[in-house]
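Supplementary Data S3. Sequence and structure tokens for construct A.
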Amino acid sequence: MTHLPDQPAAKPWFGRAVVVAFVAALVVFAVAAWQLAQPAAQVVADEIAPATVTVHTDSGAYVFTTEWVFTPADQARGLMFREEMAEDHGMVFDFGRESHRSFWMQNTLISLDIIFIHESGEVAHIAEYTTPLSEAPIPSTVPVRYVFEVVAGTADRIGLKPGDRIDLHGTAAAD
């Protein structure tokens, strides 16, 4: 191949810079893909705050250790990929204001009871024994601020029903 005099010669560093930029982009992409592939149970976000809630039913008061989620990213992940959860544990979603809510069980491996709660702490609606891995919507029937997810069968076990009260203590969001 001959070099034409009216065209500038390629800079020798340019080819190396392109290769380095390409490799760097591949590394960034690989790290991001690896992080997204990690199960949610292994990811502990700063926005997830442990606390307790007390559920009051006709049969008594029940204390649950909870994880509170506030950010859209943590709310979207929820309990996805978890293989088990203790009967006295749950996750509370605080949306900051009342509105209609809808959940699904995509990538959720365990059946849950999903409890929809008014800002006042009154139970509005309960979706019991949800189907793992389902993409079917699970809507609140009325506007709610909080959603409390617990192991399926919990509502039956403690006698929880709409109108019962949940004290949302232990977190700044409920103060």
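Construct B, processed identically:
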Amino acid sequence: MSSSAAETKKKSFPFVPALTAAAVLLALLVAWFYLNRPVPKTEETAASQEAKAYLANLALSDVNMQASENLVNQKVVEVLGNISNNGPRELKSIDVYCLFYGLDNRELHRERLRIVGGVAARGSLKPGATKSFRMPFDTLPDGWNQAMPKMVIAQITFAN
């Protein structure tokens, strides 16, 4: 091998670690932007007339609120309770709005969560059945009055 070919090889070698570092940095930036992207809001529709008519068949019990810290020392407020279906129809899912108010009694934060159905809520709610629910909140704004949020049915989906 000639001396000029060896010199060329030695000069290009330092670029490999720099290119690898740039690729790793780019992958980290893409991951960071993906994890911190805004979450699309769920469609905010009112409950159907059929769902509103069925509300009298639903009962909440043992609803309470507790606060704790998660693994990253962030305050998490949880609303826990039970929901009973005293009506004749099986319910595939139930979504609720939790409305948090400020010290001036104006709505400060609104969050929609599923308490029956889906992965976290484990299945439907049959007639005569009761299910427990847990709603965690880790992004409540400052100025929240620390009171139990108002819970409003957002949507009921009936099975068949």
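Residues 15-35 form the longest helix (21 residues). The helical segments are 3-12, 15-35, 49-54, 118-121.
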